[in-house]
Amino acid sequence: MAESTVTFFAEKLSNLILQEASVFGEVEGQIKLLRNELEWMRLFLRDADSKLIYDERVKLWVNQIRSATHDAEDVIDEFILNMDHRKRRLNTLKFLPTCVGMVDKLPFIHELDSRVKDINAMIGAIMVNRSKYGLEALTASSSSTADQAVAYKEKRAPVVEESDVVGIDDGAEEVKQMLMVKVETVGRSVVSIVGMGGLGKTTLAKKVYSQRDVQGRFDRKAWVYVSQEFRAREILLAIALQVMSPSDEEKRKLEEMGEIELGEKLCVYLKEKMYLVVMDDVWSSEVWSRLQPHFPEAKDGSKVLITTRNKEIALHATYSEAFIYELRLMNEGESWQLFLKKAFRGTGTTTPELEGLGKKIVTKCKGLPLAIVVLGGLLSTKEKTKQSWEKVLASVEWHLDQGPESCMGILALSYNDLPYYLKSCFLYCGIFPEDSKIDAWHLIKLWLAEGFIQRRGKERLEDIAEDYMHELIHRSLIQVADRRIDGRVKSCRMHDLLRDLAVSEAKDANFFEVHEKMDSTFPISIRRLVIHQNLINHDISQCLHNSSSQLRNLVSFRGPIGKESWGSLQEHIKLLTVLNLLEERFGGHMLPRDIGQLIHLKFLCIKGSYGTIKLPSSIGRLVNLQSLDLGSLHCIIPHSIWKLKKLRHLECCNSWVSSQSQINKCVNGYLGVEQLTNLQTLALIGGSWLKGDGLGKLTQLRSLALDKCSTSYLKTDFFKSIAKLTALQFLNLSFTKEHTMKTLVSPYGSVREKKNVTIDHHNKTLLFGLMPFSHHAYLCKLSLHGMLGKLPEQIEFYPPKLLGLSLWACRLTDDPMMILKKLPSLRILVLGSDAYVGEKMVCSSGGFLQLESLELYSLYELEELIVERGAMSSLKTLKIMNCNKMKKLPHGLLEQTNLEKLFLRGLSCHRLIKDIEEVGGEDWDKLCKIMC
Asked: Using DSSP, how many helices (H) and how many strands (E) does the chain show?
């Protein structure tokens, strides 16, 4: 950890010396001396970090280096902040002569010189102590470099998924039978899986939950993570959102309800349903006592599945001990097979020499799956030699000698073996609440803002960060929760034991402080503060009152920061790098005007389920900002946002940027989107900033989402700009009706404009302004919202590697399936809101061979969907929602052998289901198995 702290700051200092040499002036020599000392320290720390667990002297020496580095970072950043304030003050006094400005600068220079000299002296003394107290034997380790090289080569190697864990098949069958059987005396019963941490309770529950016959038995299903931070209202809301499949308006109403009202509504909804609710990781009997009244007993066969470490909790909730499944430890054979899958990445090949060592290592895990997969992940990064494995075995034995917590010792070994650049990334995962699903993209942006990602030639930083994530997954230190359409990680999870380790190590290294209790005591020195509970008796500024350091990261998962708190917070957050406010409900807040003083801010995220927020014009002073994320909040963003040339991610899908007035252009110069050439992600409501060809200059864009784009802004230059963005991977364009009635284009790209025209639905050559996507080689997901005349028939028009296509409100009159069936790689197709206004759709034989998911929403004129034999042979999921004129279920639907999930909603669907139920037979049996 200390090595990463020094490395990140040394790189930052080197960049500052290059960029701000004129600012440092005569102090530049001392700054370079500091940078050089840090480089030497970094070399010695590479090995020291791994040895501090063995020697208290090393631990003290490392902690002193870390503290000195933090002091140095504060000194440099405070100086840059003071220089920024001075520059702005002088800009308001332009009539003063230059000499006055130099005199004004001298006190800051002298103070910086004095403080940097003190730090250099302190570092010199720390380095002297290294030899004075017998620590000179520490040298840079060559093995870590070798391991990093192996990791780099294998960064894309396949991982062993949770479903591959051996030894749980018998348990899965037993738990499944408990869920499938009816209990005569009760309408709803509880099944419990009990076992110690790391034994695989969640893995077993997921294996059972995902089985087709289990999915098919229950009308409504939900999975919620409970954890130690139990909040009844949030659990009820999560269940309601899954079982009810509400519209946006219904979802908003649910989110506004309190616990009692929400529980009553859920109870009424489930009364006539056969449901299955999984409550994972229950820590208290109070959970069941509080939630039980909201699970009705009216429908025979409904089940609640609980996983817990405590058998008393299971006995409290379960009707009979016969419905409690106690997980056992793995036997020797099962442990060895699981180890082979992880250590050899699924190949299972070993040598007699390594097999003997491997079995000794596995024996130390005592049959605990989590310990086995983590140690296997560690060894998968090591050279397959006797010497390398003997070192790991010796380390395991040392850790186990330290105390009875054998699993935690093995997990700590895996953490200590991480290369320095991964340690910070792993610990950072601990800031998220226990058992929460972590958005991978959000995590990557945080890593970037913190400076954890080390440059590798010309590679994109975000791609390097993804490699870091893959390496943590390979080592089984984090788990994949969901994947994107292209196979990349969408979200991840952290086992609660590994999170405990991360929080403990972070606190020990003064990396971050997590406050999960309402009246926590705050330490004297905090650099990163994470708040999971409302601070009932204090505000944040009071909690930081005794802190001796400057806060660099503030993350709050609970409650907004009130206006009163901002003023008193200023003294503690002036060097803030990350401000991350993730709130359940957010509305009507405005960031203070002096937010612009936080010039070191790189990451600003404010999210809520709904609401508005106001940004002051001073946002344009955040010159180091890399990421602005307002989620779905509504906001008018000041046009000064275009000043932020370091911005890489601008994600504000429900926000629009204000127009720059002519007066402002004359005074401050023109500001436009084309100045943000580092942008990788852009999500905004369309506006005047789309005029001209500025968008086409953002050639690094990977993701673009534009909403409510109207006619007045969309001319030829706009469509040419889209054609130039050939690095795009995701594109979402939404056009207003006004535009689709005025601007038309042929599928070959020749744009022509007409005013006040009516679209001729029989004209087969017209499509609104988009040009062919044939050069968008990386575009895998495309979403279009707005009226189309007709889909182009030429397959060359579409992106060559398109995996997902969504069409909304297109009002196509010709059956789109005749064209879309030709797309060779299409896996997901969504048609919604009258995307097609015809009465019949046919999926002909041999078409859509790769399609896995077909989703139809609100196609109000559709009466019949025909799936011919040999079509959609890979289809796994079919959703038909509110297609109220459908007269019968898709012809050929029940012949689809791979179909796993069928979602039917709407009045006509209820009638169709009832008709099949009355007839019964094989069709009804098949329908019951796949219907969700």
From this structure: 31, 33
